[in-house]
């Protein structure tokens, strides 16, 4: 008697579990598809609008110095606390990529040209033209190319 009761209980439980699983699968799939397809295009527009590749964060740029991003061929400097500038990393003398930022200048290893971190102007030849400015935006602590 006891054994028979147990078998029925197990069968009922299995049947109920199966039914619940079927309902969950149907309901879950239907609900997920609706809102997801509606909100996805909106999300893409929101992320593409402010655009700009994030280069770095502000805490990575030393005050009075800068950092070179060879992949993007850009130098980001912070001449004064909280003021950020960006320049091309291509030396205007003969096109080498600048290699270091020290003592307030951006330095080219090829022939010794140096550029001021504040405005990219020539601090030491043989280069005669300044490094062209690049456009960046700083949002919070994020530095982005624009
Ligand atoms: S290419 Fe930079 S100093 Fe000549």
UniProtKB/TrEMBL annotation:
One Gene Ontology MF term: monooxygenase activity
Superkingdom, natural source: Bacteria
This protein's UniProt keywords: 2Fe-2S, Disulfide bond, Iron, Iron-sulfur, Metal-binding, Oxidoreductase
Region feature (Disordered): 32-64
Ranges of Polar residues composition bias in the record: 35-47
GO cellular component: membrane
Name of the protein described by the UniProt record: Cytochrome bc1 complex Rieske iron-sulfur subunit
Function in brief: Iron-sulfur subunit of the cytochrome bc1 complex, an essential component of the respiratory electron transport chain required for ATP synthesis. The bc1 complex catalyzes the oxidation of menaquinol and the reduction of cytochrome c in the respiratory chain. The bc1 complex operates through a Q-cycle mechanism that couples electron transfer to generation of the proton gradient that drives ATP synthesis.
Source organism per UniProt: Streptomyces chartreusis NRRL 3882
Matches recorded under CDD domains: Rieske (cd03467)
Rieske domain ranges (all copies): 60-145
Needed cofactors: [2Fe-2S] cluster
């Amino acid at each position: 008697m006891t054994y028979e009761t147990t078998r029925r209980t197990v069968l009922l439980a299995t049947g109920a579990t199966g039914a619940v699983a079927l309902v969950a699968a149907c309901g879950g799939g239907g609900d997920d598809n609706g809102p997801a397809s509606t909100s996805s295009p909106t999300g893409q527009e929101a992320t593409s609008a402010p655009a700009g590749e994030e280069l770095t964060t502000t805490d990575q740029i030393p005050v009075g110095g800068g950092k070179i991003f060879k992949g993007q061929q850009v130098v980001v400097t912070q001449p004064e606390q909280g003021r950020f500038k960006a320049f091309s990393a291509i030396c205007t003398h003969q096109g080498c990529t600048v290699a270091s930022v020290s003592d307030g200048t951006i330095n080219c290893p090829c022939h010794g040209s140096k550029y001021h971190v504040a405005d990219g102007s020539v601090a030491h030849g043989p280069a005669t033209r300044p490094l062209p400015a690049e456009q960046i935006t700083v949002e919070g602590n994020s530095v982005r190319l624009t």
